[in-house]
Amino acid sequence: MDDLIECPNAPQDIWPLKRGDTLSSHDWFPFFTHRFLGSSFVRRCRVTGRREDIGTAVILWAESMRQDPAGTLPPGDLDLADLAHFHCMEEWQQAKENVLYGWVPVLVEDPRTGEFETKLGHPGMIEDIVQDMHKRKKGRDHAREAQNLATKKFRIRDKMRAMGVDEHIVSDDRAVTALAEFFAQSGLYITPDNVRTAMIEVLGYTGKVTPISAARER
């Protein structure tokens, strides 16, 4: 946020910005306290007698986290005034210069069409916050996927044992992982019949499988 330039006319390409990179499900974001208090932005608002612009800027930072992509703002004054909770354009115009300090035009790509649109981005503290949040999100997603895979593997092994599948196949982690990935992609329920079908399709397994009723009588 320190020593940032005013918004230039030409859009800039800062961090990779694509539609769909959202954080709208998050109700918080990290705040770099020392960096904020020592920033040129806070100093600018103080010396220009516009301390109230600090609060308005924070509102827009929070709103930017709910945009698509996260960390951007619409470029139009009407949209910005609405997001900043102003009731008239005159008040927004008075605050605009300070509030948008550090924000620059950026290009946002739509992966579906390959087209670009211009929005406002903040190549400083907001960029760092968004990248940190995406790292946290990816970490949680990976952990959730790993837990879901582990649960599927447990249920598949349980069904395989009930079906009387040889233990050396049940304990083969690569084979069971391949089956779990099959179920994850197909969306099928892990039932004995579906496990039997998956073993044939994924593993090429054609060995005899003990009927469930017979396996339960052991």
Please name the defining characteristics of this protein.
6% strand; three-stranded antiparallel β-sheet; disordered N terminus; elongated; 218 residues; mainly alpha; 10 helices
Q: Can you tell me about this structure?
A:
The chain has 218 residues and is mainly α. The protein is 54% helix and 6% strand. It has ten helices and three strands; from the N terminus they run H-H-H-E-H-H-E-E-H-H-H-H-H. It has a three-stranded antiparallel sheet. Strand 2 and strand 3 (116-121) form a beta hairpin. Helix 3 (52-64) packs across helix 5 (89-99), helix 6 (125-162) crosses helix 8 (173-186) and helix 8 packs across helix 9. The longest helix is centred in the middle third of the chain and has 38 residues, at 125-162. 23% of the residues are buried. Mean pLDDT is 81; it is low at 1-10 and 210-218.
Can you count the beta strands?
Answer: 3
Q: Spans of 5+ residues with little confidence (pLDDT < 50)?
A: 1-10, 210-218
Query: What quaternary form is this?
Result: single chain
Strands of the widest sheet, in order across it, are: 1-3-2
Tally of individual helices: 10
Order of helices and strands: HHHEHHEEHHHHH
Proportion in β-strands: 5-15%
What would a concise description of this structure say?
The protein has 218 residues and is mostly helical.
Summarize the SSE layout with pairings.
Elements: H1 33-37, H2 40-47, H3 52-64, E1 72-73, H4 77-83, H5 89-99, E2 104-109, E3 116-121, H6 125-162, H7 167-170, H8 173-186, H9 192-203, H10 212-216
Antiparallel strand pairs: 1-3, 2-3
Helix pairs in contact: 3-5, 6-8, 8-9
